[in-house]
Amino acid sequence: TLDxxxxxxxxxxxPWSKSGGLALVTASLAVEFAERGRRTMAISxxxxxxxxxxxxxxxxxxxxxxxHQVKYFHQWHQxxxxxxxxxxxxxxxxxxxxxxxxxxxxxxxxxxxNLY
Length: 116
Prior knowledge:
- A hairpin with a 4-residue loop joins strand 6 and strand 7.
- The chain contains 1 helix and 7 strands; from the N terminus they run E-H-E-E-E-E-E-E.
- The chain is 13% helix and 41% strand.
- It starts with 5 loop residues before the first strand and ends in a 6-residue tail after the last strand.
């Protein structure tokens, strides 16, 4: 039914973060659901300082024996008249890495926490 909202959570979403097909599929799904009349939200890490974002909230969480501050940003993207996607980006310092999303090109190694 159209009254059920859709939430898509992904490690990548085009055009903000893309290393391959996952980002393209995630972005396409979000747009298609919205165009078919679903309220749609796509959530992804914020790997960089993206333009056009609106800060929504800060939360302090306890994880791995320490407090971490997580920030949430929002952007509405209209796909057609009265339809669109809410993009939510989760920001934490661990996402801001040199060299790439999963692989440090400068050092030629994958990040050690890729499996978590």
